Fold this protein.
Amino acid sequence: MMLLAILKISIRALQRNTLRTLLTMLGIIIGVAAVIAMISIGNGAKAQVEARIAAMGQNVAMVFSGNVTRGGFSMGFGSAGTLTQGDFDALRKEISGIVGASPEVRANAQVAAGNQNLLTTVMGVGEDYVSARSWKFASGDNFTDQDVRSAAKVALIGKTTATSLFGDGDPVGQIIRIKSAPFTIVGALASKGMAMFGNDQDDIILVPYTSAMKRLSGGTSFRSFVVQAAAPDLLPTVQQDISELLRQRHRIREGADDDFMVRTQQEITEAATETSKTMTWLLGSVACVSLLVGGIGIMNIMLVSVTERTREIGVRMAVGARGSDILLQFLAEAITLSFFGGLIGIGLGIGISKLVSVKAGWVTLVSTDSILLSFAASAIIGIFFGFYPARKAAQLDPIDALRYE
């Protein structure tokens, strides 16, 4: 009952100067809104990166060939063709726990259909590739293991490439020419959208890797393999087994560097989202400065309020109010400021997040954690910055307070 009475007195005291109260709350409002909006933008960016990595497939490990140096500069893993057909065959036969594997032979080629032509990415892959990449079909079906073994001239076409060559019509059954070689489209891939690094995943044509090596690249080695494990918990074991198999096949001595690199989807996800996490913390930290400024504003106004109401404090003490009662009253006023400021800030922060998503086209993700964190921070700030003015008011001498003009 006493707490309810103190709260009523605090609200009446704040209502005496509504404009000053609103301006004091503004710092908390802006701080809470900024924290929620910034964290939601950071979480949205992180979720977008994770979604694009998930589009790579489920339980995927990537095997990259070795590094090559040109003109004194390292070109990075995948730049040297150290992976062979024998490596791929051994991987499929000897590694347990995998449900699919495919080489990757990448080339840019001029593709023509009727009077339309364009330069697009042509990938030579195995029959397991679309399954490992979790790629659905809009129409048609996948090419077969027999197509791969016979280097058949069949192709799967991405949504963007299909639209450029055939408009809105179904491309299945159509003939396209890749570097003058005729290929029959047997499947149209469903849209996947943008990849992690911003390139269009749908601007692509997939052909059997044997056809790509024979008719397009002329190469005899691979730059990378895609391997799909049967379950997420098998990925570390599959990764280790692949490394041991390739080291044995490539006759790499103990202690020598590998001429290949194996990376799992989890490792790629962690590396790609690390920047997003850093940016989220940075944006949140900058926004927290606004909360700190709002807390300083509360302390400043409460100190002014103590000075203005010194005589009132003296009267209350003279009629029996204890120091603890005065402390609770002024502390309640500070907490009330931060409480209502926090509530308004939460609504404003959610609104800003939605507005950014609609107007700027950014992905934003408002989390319950960010709301609770912001609200808890505003409450703590109210208590922390309100305690000193409240304590100062409680320690006033009643006689001196009554004499104050």
User: Anything to note?
Assistant: The chain has a mean pLDDT of 82. The chain is about 55% helix and 20% strand.
